[in-house]
């Protein structure tokens, strides 16, 4: 019953996407399986139980980012339970996220990039090829992020003097 109310809370109050809600449902199902195996209810859960739950995830081969995503889901769930006065104390407040490896970006060799842009510059025979060339120039020439690039509108570009007004 609480799980259904929590899902409605995510959908209506938090306005989470369908994909996010499905991920939360999956996390709740996994957590409920743990509770059933241990003979516990959410009202019984203490810090030690949560540590055990997340340790089991690590031992089963889950990577740190997957465990952290589960921790985030459980953090939201226990805040909801506390808000609804189903639990007095939130045991997730003491749980800290696992350290994750920082991934370095893949760097394109300068010579390869210059060759690619030169080739693209020579093959501008229509709108699509011109657009693609401009996208590549912006991405690699300015370091703009893809999300920022996707927000560019036609009025952000002065085609007469060939400048970008973003």
UniProtKB/TrEMBL annotation:
Annotated localization: Cytoplasm
Domain Tyr recombinase span(s) in chain numbering: 103-166
Keyword Cell division: yes
Cited InterPro entries: CB (IPR044068), DNA_brk_join_enz (IPR011010), Integrase-like_cat_sf (IPR013762), Integrase_catalytic (IPR002104), Integrase_recombinase_N (IPR010998), Integrase_SAM-like_N (IPR004107), Tyrosine_recombinase_XerCD (IPR050090)
Pfam families given in the database record: Phage_int_SAM_1, Phage_integrase
UniProt entry tagged with the keyword Zinc-finger: no
Record-annotated Core-binding (CB) domain positions: 1-82
Any one cellular-component term (Gene Ontology): cytoplasm
UniProt keyword list: Cell cycle, Cell division, Chromosome partition, Cytoplasm, DNA integration, DNA recombination, DNA-binding
GO BP term, pick one: DNA integration
PANTHER family: PHAGE INTEGRASE-RELATED, TYROSINE RECOMBINASE XERC
Protein name from the UniProt record: Tyrosine recombinase XerC
């Amino acid at each position: 019953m609480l799980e259904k109310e929590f899902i409605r809370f995510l959908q209506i109050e938090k306005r989470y996407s369908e994909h996010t809600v499905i991920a939360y449902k999956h996390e709740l199902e996994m957590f409920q399986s743990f509770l059933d195996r241990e003979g516990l209810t959410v009202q019984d859960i203490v810090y030690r139980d949560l540590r055990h739950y997340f340790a089991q995830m690590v031992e089963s081969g889950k990577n740190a980012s997957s465990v952290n995503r589960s921790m985030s889901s459980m953090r939201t769930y226990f805040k909801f339970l506390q808000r609804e006065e189903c639990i007095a104390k939130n045991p997730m407040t003491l749980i800290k996220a696992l350290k994750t490896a920082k991934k370095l970006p893949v760097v394109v060799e300068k010579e390869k990039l210059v060759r690619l842009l030169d080739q693209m510059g020579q093959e501008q025979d229509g709108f699509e090829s011109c657009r693609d060339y401009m996208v590549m120039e912006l991405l690699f020439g300015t370091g703009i992020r893809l999300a920022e690039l996707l927000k560019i509108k036609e009025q952000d570009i002065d085609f007469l003097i060939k400048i970008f007004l973003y």
